[in-house]
Amino acid sequence: MSKKVRKETIAVEGVWPVGSYVYKAPTLYQELLEGFKQKKIIGSLCTGCGFVYVPMRNICGRCWRKIDARVTVSDKGTVKSFTLSQAVKKGQVKVLGMDPVEMGWLKEGERLIMVLVNFDGTNSKYTTILLNAKPEEAHIGMRVQAVWKEKPEGKLSDIIGVEPIK
Amino acid sequence: MMREKVAIIGYAQSYHQANMPMTREDMVFEVAKEAAKMAGIEREDIDTVINATNDYYEGRTISELFLVMPIGAYLKDYTKVEMDGANAVFYGMLKILSGTHDIALIVANTQGSTFNPHQISVYTLDPTFDRQIGVLNDISAAAIQARVYMNKYGISEEEAAIVSVKNLGNAAKNPHAHRRMPGISLEEVLSSKLYCDPIRELTMSPISDGAAAVVLASEKKARELSDCPVWIKGVGSCQDSYIRDRKLYKLEGLEAAAKKAYQMAGIKNPFAELDAAEVSERYAHEELMIYEALGFCEEGRGGTLIDSCATFNDGQLPVNPSGGALSADPITATGLIRIVEATMQIRGEAGAHQIPGAWRVLAHGQTGICAQQNIVFILGGEE
Amino acid sequence: MKILKEEVIPVKGIPVVAGFRWSVGELMDRFIKELGNKKILGAKCSKCNYTYVPPRAWCSKCSAKMDANNLVELSGRGVLVGYTTAYVELDGNGNFRDLEKPKAIGAIKLEDADSTIFMPLIDVEPEKLKEGITVKVVWQEETKGQISDIKGFKPEK
Amino acid sequence: MWRNIAVIGVGQTKHGIRRDINAAEMIAEAAWKALEDAELGPEDIDAIAIGNMQGFGGICQAELWSGDLFAAPGKPVLRIATGGTTGGSVAQCGMYQVASGLFDTVLAIGFEKHSDSKEPGATMGLSHVGLANMFHLLANGVDVRTSFAYGGGVGAAAGVSAYQACEYMHRSGCKIEHLDMVAAKSRRNAAKNKYAHLQWPNCTAESLAKHPRFGEIVAYPLRLGHICPASDGASAIVIASEEIARKADRPAWVRGLAACADEENQQAENAQGVSILDTSEQMQCRIAAMKAYRMAGIKNPREEIDVAEIYQPFPHQELMYSERLLLFDDGKAWIPLEEGETEIDGKLPIDPSGGVLSTNAIGSSAMQRVAECALQIMGKAEEHQVPKDVKNAVAHGWGGSTNFTVVTVLGDTPRLRW
In this predicted structure, what is the pLDDT of residue B106? Predict the structure, then answer.
């Protein structure tokens, strides 16, 4: 592919302050995080179709009704899909204007294994990262279990990730 | 001419308010579900779902993405109209007239509390010029329009303020309205906070959270499902030129839209033939301009018409018995709320703000600065 | 289990903005550059004679195509066709800000042009504004060929 | 549908990085080209349907400002936006406008101007899809490293697609080499399409995989060369009623159209859970395809469809959607790919225009699929015209987080009414 010289006109600038919006969130995550404090994963159960959602969902579109029952589910599950992040060097990419290596989020050359996990007893998938495994070991159908923080404090980071069940 | 008739068989609207203690999802779920319940249908009966929102107001690109499930669109024909909700009804009607769908669910929603909609009006301007100059927004544009219009026809600020008195007073009887002010006086309106001369807090619409939904049906289905279908007799829509190249003292686009709608509905003298009208007046003076464009009075006589009290609830042609957009303005839902209110009037379900014997009602929706895009519906009961 | 209901939690964002740089097109490019020479250009449709300020590539009245040959220089004087005084402005982040000193905004029809432009009015007392008065452009001390070269318009004495 | 309608004119701008015109002029360029192609004047147009994803270009309801450049004043305008499907939804809106009988000639326009965004490659527009969710997650103490997983490392639709590619490969047994073959075919075809953005004549799977830059895997299993560009461009079609279309030389008749939405594919509002465990299942696409084929009277799509334009910003999607459009067996699309059946001169050409992999101006992309199908039927696709008589063509588009689908079937003869 060759680079061509493009005709350009001058440009004028403007911004859209996307960070100034205030959104409304339901209290569902509060319930989930209450459970996290006891190393428990709580899901919402639609009594219409029997589907269990983790993280919780408050409306089931299949049955077109509100979901209000709660169940505790296992913290073991199956990898439904995965992808690997790009191994990046310092200054290579920016996330919302920040360099992930510089910020200490990623080590240089590290490839994060990002997985969608279907916890046993649920019908949904939970997004997290796979720990204690090499990228080439990741596969769909892999059995994993949640890795909890030693002292959970009711935050999403209480689940550090998932690791293979040996 | 329409090949078939299309009817509204169910409707619902939220209790519009400044900051609704409800997520966007719950809000649309409730109105959609209520409208379907009223129409006596289940999710399985719906053929197509049309949503009206705007990514800028919602603060999410693909704002309808997460609304698929709450809105009842799971595995349904689904699309989004990024304009006033009345246009979504128009699209739903087109689908039914095409003969491909029988029942359409239309939902429109905006939560103004997410982000100031007046700021967003700036983003609709020409980015290469007007947005750079930085003086124009929907309030300042409306203020200039108000001045031009009022000076040209000798209309006083009081006459425009009467519109606010009328609409906010009417809203007191409407439990769904956001700004309800029983016994509001002219002085109160004229002494409210000045934004852009002559636009004041009470002569411009409030920023509201709200949603509305209607169920449309083909003639066959409507007769099957409903005892009291409300028919769409006529519709007209028109976009006007960009604000730099159009007349500021008159709503030419609305005039053209109304002409089409009247022609379709066979209306020759709208003032005599209509029983009520629900219009989207974002600013008080705009309602006077709307009177003229809709042919309720001659050009420049909007002030005289409001002075005569003919558009009050006990007048000859009540306009905005619900309180109109001045009482609640959840942007993309506003036009759809007008259709819902018109339907309520025809079905005799408007409660305290019912106009007795309303059988042919006009509903109007608008999009854009100084009402650049207008859509007019003529709704009617069984002839 | 206790179910919390009908409560919402406001979610505030982190301060990020989406930035844009709109390319302006050939005619606007000329228009903006000529501002540096203290000239205001318009585009006159050769079919219907409607003159646009700022210039644009198609005529909205008769749909004729316009190009650099349609550009005409305008005098910088015009008639005030409408005005308002703003007491409140938007701060760009969606908040209203009360202005200490109200700002006057004018809708102006430049001589030989048909479009109305919306411009700040400077050096005026809001009470003295009247439709039909002649206004003229005020340039920045140094013009650089950008839109902000126009400081505003003021009534001609 | 009670009356027949047809596409009688097609217009496209050169897609790519267009810093030489503004958004309004770009839209107008496509609109006027379409009108010229249809041999109609602006006064003949009864209504307009238009759409784009407004977060990308930074202009809200751009038709309000730009409408004046393509004769919108005085006409009813409907603005449609549904994510990636936007162009297809706009085209279908135009089709319904004519089919309803209220209008006889309609102009439908899709456009996008990504280069107006300061951030490269539409990243802000894309991340904005899930920005509210991300704020919610951050407010609930998500670990930053885990938060990358929500975007699949690349963000939004691209993130969903990386997971989806993995699922599809697991389901079908296809390999990264097959993705290379699709991407190379697309770049090759694009070189024959004068409107396309990324053109790479004689590109092969090997040359793409071994390319120092494009060969790098950015989000397993996707290479940089597997990801669509962020283009600027606009495309437009003119749709007309049967009486008007009969006067045209060889109109592309609309034989079937359908749209369908499924549950969000990765996460719901405020990062709630979703229960689509296999995003390569694509139930909504199967439903839309079946509806559209039934309307078109197509009983055996494999035999009756002559060319398909599939919306494939990522290569696995060409394979996956060709299966969901019932053109191949589930999980077997890589076999005909290996055999060259989907090349321009193959048995069933897919994306002879190069498709979305080579040109992605989001609002325009799905519209281009309809436009390209129309061109193939009209015989006006020039260099990338498939060397056979095109009787039926299918145009596809996906949007949202791969959970919206539009399918339009065009044909060389009007639809039979029954």
Answer: 98
Distances from the Cα of B152 to the Cαs of B142, B147, B299, C115, D340, in angstroms? 15, 8, 11, 19, 72
Residues 58-87 in C contacting A (C-alpha not used; CB under 8 Å):
none
Q: Measured in Å, how far apart are chain D's first and last C-alpha atoms?
A: 10
C76 touches C110 (CB < 8 A):
yes
When the pLDDT of each residue in chain B is averaged and rounded to a whole number, the result is 96
CB distance D219–A122 less than 8 Å? no
- In the predicted structure, residue A130 carries a pLDDT above the cut 80: yes
In a domain? residue A8 = no
Q: What percent of chain D has pLDDT over 70?
A: 98
Enumerate domains of chain B plus CATH numbers: 6-115+207-225 (3.40.47.10)
Does the CB of C95 have a partner CB in chain B at under 8 Å?
Answer: yes
- Cβ contact A15–C12 (<8 Å): no
User: How many domains, chain C?
Assistant: 1
For residue A35, give the chain C residue with the closest CA: C1
Task: Kindly report whether the global pTM for this prediction surpasses the value 0.90.
Answer: yes
Q: Which residues of D touch B62 (CB under 8 A)?
A: 53, 81-83, 129, 399-400
Average pLDDT over residues A69-77: 96
Is residue D78 within 8 Å of residue B91, measured between CB atoms?
yes
Residues in C touching D155 (Cβ below 8 Å)? none
Residue D10 corresponds to which amino acid?
V
Domain range annotation of chain D: 5-117+229-411
ipTM over 0.90: yes
Domain D5-117+229-411: top CATH class: alpha beta
Four-point Cα dihedral D318, D320, D323, D324, nearest 10? -110
- Over residues C131-143, the mean pLDDT reads 95
Asked if residues D19 and D32 have their Cβ atoms less than 8 Å apart, the reply is no
Chain D neighbours, 3+ Cβ pairs < 8 A: A, B, C
- For D216, nearest residue in chain A (alpha carbons): A86
* Of residues D23, D58, D287, nearest to B75 (C-beta): D287
pLDDT at A2: 47
Show residues of chain C in contact with B130, CB under 8 Å: 118
Closest chain D CA to residue B4:
D100
**pLDDT exceeds cutoff 70 at D83:** yes
Helix axes B138-153, B157-171, angle to 10 degrees: 120
Q: Do C19 and A25 touch (CB under 8 A)?
A: no
Write the DSSP symbol of residue A106: S
Q: Is 50 exceeded by the pLDDT of residue B227?
A: yes
Residue C1 pLDDT > 80, yes or no? no
Instruction: Write out the residue range of the structural domain in which residue C75 sits.
Output: 26-155
Structure tokens at B355: 């106009």
D128 interfaces chain C, CB cutoff of 8 Å: yes
Residue C6: predicted pLDDT? 59
